[in-house]
Structure prediction request, 292 residues.
Amino acid sequence: MYHTWMRYFTPSPVHHRLGLVCLGVGLQHGTLPTVGPRTLDHHVAVVINAGSGWFRGPDGRRTAVTAPAVLWLTPGVPHHYGPDPHGGWDESFVDFSGPATTTYTELGYIEPDRPVVPLCDTAAARAAVGRIARAARRGNPLLEVETGAAVHELLVALRRDRADTNAEGDPVLTALARDAFQPLSVAEHAARHGMTPAELRTAVRRGAGCSPKDYLLGIRLGRAKELLAATELPVAAVARRVGYEDPAYFSRLFTRRVGTAPVRFREQQGRAVPGGWSNRVPDPEHPPTIPT
Prediction:
């Protein structure tokens, strides 16, 4: 026996321009029938919350699936899967599409080459699917936008909860962030980790979805923005603080990546704070009480 609940949607062309749209959602459990063989024209994330089963891709190889896990079904790729015929499984699925899927794939959030990905937990993914299910009520005027936003959440949750992701953070990325403001080349960063530059590029691409150079640049420019907005340090001093001895080069780089010059950014965002901004992350659910 099994139980199935599902809804399907047809977002308009204007909603597709948001970048990511939800095409359907389902919650199923029990000894479900097998799916396929079939080929789809859109993406599906099948989140296995409990139980076990199998998956077969275009190469015909049968792969065991044990919860928690996610199955990535990608457009144009034949697939065939099903739960254990005796114990069954509990699954949530979300169908989605849109131009943003290309970028999510490039960043490693969607993994066409690894259709079965073990997870360490599915709580966050289930919460995102739950938001889609609640938004799926008949007559919801915000349906397409709410469900599309939840698909973004789902992809982030599935990326964060991969079983090969360290809950304390990727040690390579953590070390790069710590040393980001030092004037080190990518090769020198790699040597600090006992890695070749190619190995470091692979590790950072897998962990952050970008090159080491772009990862370091993002951290440097983020800190530069904070210093420009919250202090009155000269641009040359800001450049040195974030690892650039040549302020002219820093200004060109900042302008090219941010879209505005450092001085102009300060004019737009500046809010000098005596002593600088707090490093303590506030809790939005429990804001401090403001006296009246």
Notes: The chain has a mean pLDDT of 90. The two ends are 60 Å apart (CA to CA). Strands lie at 2-8, 21-30, 35-38, 43-56, 62-66, 69-73, 79-83, 89-97, 116-118. The longest strand covers residues 43-56.
